Amino acid sequence: MSWSITGTGAVASVGANVNEIFDNLCAGLSGRRPLQVFDRSRYTSPFAYEMDDRGEESGDVPGRATRWLLAAVEQAAREADLGDDLSGVPVIVGSGLREHRSMELWHRTGVPFDGERLHFGAALQDRFGVTEAYCVANACAASLYALALGADLLAEGGAPAVIVAGVDMVTESMFGLVERMNPVPPQEVRPFDRQRRGAVMGEAAVAVVLRPADSPYQGRARATLRGVGVNCDAFHVTAPSAEGIAAAIRQAHEQAGIKPESVDLVMLHGTGTLLNDAAEASAMQEVFGAHVSTPVMTAIKSMTGHTSGASGLLGLIVAARALAEGRIPPTLGLTEPIDEVAGFRFPFGQSLHRQVDVAQVNAFGFGGVNAVAIVEAVR
Amino acid sequence: MTVVMVGAATVLPSNPTLAELATPAHRVPGPADPGAHITLRGLRYKDHATRLALAAAQVALVDARMWDGDRLTVDGNRVAVVVSSNYGNADTVCRAVETIARESTAGTSPMDLPNTSSNVVASSVAIRFGLRGANVMLCNGLTSGLDALFWARMLVRTGRAAQVLAVGVEPDNAVVRRLTGDENVLDGAAAVVVEHPATARERRVPARARYAAYERAAGVDQCLSRLARHASAPAAWYAPEPSAAGTDVLTGLRRHDLARVWGQASGALGVLQCAAAVGHFDGGGAGPVYLVNGGAPERVTAGVVLDAPGAVG
User: Can you give the residue ranges of the Ketosynthase family 3 (KS3) domain (chain A) (predicted)?
Assistant: First the structure.
């Protein structure tokens, strides 16, 4: 079984649509800026990869994550000729932090907030008539987990198309507690570099439209989804496990019916934290073995920041463009790679032009939830 | 292909049996006590919702003959977890922003970091029992508990899992009461184990209820009419939150208002209803039964049809 990706949409700190995001990433443009939305005196971390769209408002306003999600879904649905009436289309949203930021504002400042708005379902119903919306809060693997569920739903039949989305914004609680864990506040995300200091949060919303590959739909497919592996380390609430990650990668390859040497491009999770990067690199070494130098690998969190639950799907739409165009964004800020990535081929500093046919996208989250997707070019 | 329920459990104030969930002999006010079901050793930094879920999970796994007291009796790689909760960590998040505003991030506790992530309940359940299959944290509002049953079934049908532990949990605290605008909110958890009937037979574990159908629609009436296409003569129905519309539907049919008994149950309600239905069938009760969640006017309502385990279909 495989699935056609017939529409994509996204907003992030590096662009307001998929074209802008992809071009900016290939140009090595970073979305990092001085922290805008929070009171900086409360934090030692000075930067984030934010989308500051509050307009003239002073202080933060509720509902921004919901607004971004609707924008990404609208872009993807229109590109896939679904229009704005999505009443028969299931929408599965992956979001680590849901509308926690609005809940924080409600708690701190008393702005009105309804608990039923935490999960986006009501907003999707109001805007697009969606009655089948699901919110999967699987930490930083949320949107690729949502992709697995969406693909399963289509495989079981019933709906002509499924929309899978991911959204996350910087919340005070997560930003603050992540900062609390870092001995030195990281200035930027530097995946797999010896000088990496930890993750810096970013913001994004992403959506894709999936159809069964054999559907009668005549429109253009952006890429073909071949499989998504999902599992849980059952190891630790925050620390990753190389063994669990490797098992998820193997599961994805098996679902897609491919071997490691068939993979041309890997969108690494690459959060720039000491533990994630080491565990992810070890897992890749273990699964790819002698073929670890075959694919090009890159980590776009070096430019988008850690977009939490949205990050997996953001990697997927970038992979889809790379498959279509033969351009691969660089891993910014990677100058001294760690020993664990010996043999990995990164585009350092600037984008790489190379035809790639099969891409692997990694996403791992707190609690040891792992999700790995395999996508293929449409030629 | 259908799936069956092979285990069920609840952790609630006054520790009712499954059969007593709909009509408890007495209800002791106050919080549910996970320590009445499991040892709390090693759970010092877990939030209340996680402890409730761990207790319900263990009792359900024992009930499904998958846990023998200290280890799994099935392959943990093939067991998935689906947890439904809307407000499990709302108090942790709100407390963290208060502390940051007052004392900057230096005042926060690093032990709160995992609890800030909404999936801490689902991953903690996996870690405690070694469940390495798919692990899904569903936070889907009023319908979330029945949605969790739907996804549990999906994970079995697609072969991603042999068994799925589905848990619904909500804690009672000041933040949840303010968010829901309700002083009477559930403090507790429910868990059920979903399995393919063939593997349940191989394990010689009895099926306790049969999952027959799932529907979603805008409004209670439309959802009920869709459920009727699958089973037109239900023996009873488990109603949505009392605040929802639909108090005047299915009149004449035996109605169980679990949220009236145990408090507004949000993401836990669907799983709680399922556990109660298992108790109903355990006692020889007739099927089919409807479970209904949601029900705010014009908002999405979800419904599940459960049948007695021996029913043909």
Answer: 1-377
| Short-list B162, B184, B50, B59, CA closest to B114 | B50
Provide ipTM, 2 decimals: 0.97
Tell me the pairing of strands A369-376 and A358-365.
antiparallel
d(CA B279, CA A124): 36
**Catalytic annotation present for A119:** no
CA distance A121 to A99: 11
Give which of A102, A144, A177 to mutate to test B binding, by max B Cβ within 10 Å. A177
- pLDDT tens-digit series, residues A8-56: 999 999 999 999 999 999 999 999 999 998 988 999 889 999 998 888 7
Strand duo A369-376 + B236-238: pairing: unpaired
Chain A 98-117, residues with CB within 8 Å of chain B CB atoms: 98, 100, 103-104, 106-108, 113, 115-116
DSSP string, A109-130: H-----GGGTTSHHHHHHHH--
3-class SS at B111? Answer: helix
> Where would I find the beta strands (DSSP E) of chain B?
3-11, 79-84, 135-138, 163-170, 188-195, 209-218, 236-238, 254-256, 289-293, 300-307
CB < 8 Å to B129, chain A: 234
pLDDT digits (tens, 9 = 90+) for A124-151: 999 999 999 999 999 999 999 999 999 9
Q: List residues bridging with B3 in a β-sheet.
A: B211
Reported as a single tens digit per residue, the pLDDT across B154-178 is: 999 999 999 999 999 999 999 999 9
Q: What are phi and psi of B211, to 5 degrees?
A: -80, 120
For residue A186, give Cα distances in angstroms to A40, A192, A196, A199, A310: 15, 14, 8, 7, 21
**In contact, B161 and B246? CB cutoff 8 Å:** no
Asked if residues B48 and B98 have their Cβ atoms less than 8 Å apart, the reply is no
By three-state DSSP, how is residue A169 classified?
coil
At residue A248's C-alpha, the angle toward residues A245 and A251, to 5°, is: 150
Asked if the Cβ–Cβ distance from A145 to B100 is below 8 Å, we say no
Q: What are phi and psi of B136, to 5 degrees?
A: -120, 125
Contact at 8 Å (CB) between A206 and A310? yes
- A232 contacts in chain B (CB < 8 Å): 81, 123, 126, 131-135
**Contact between chains at B157 and A156 (C-beta distance less than 8 A):** yes
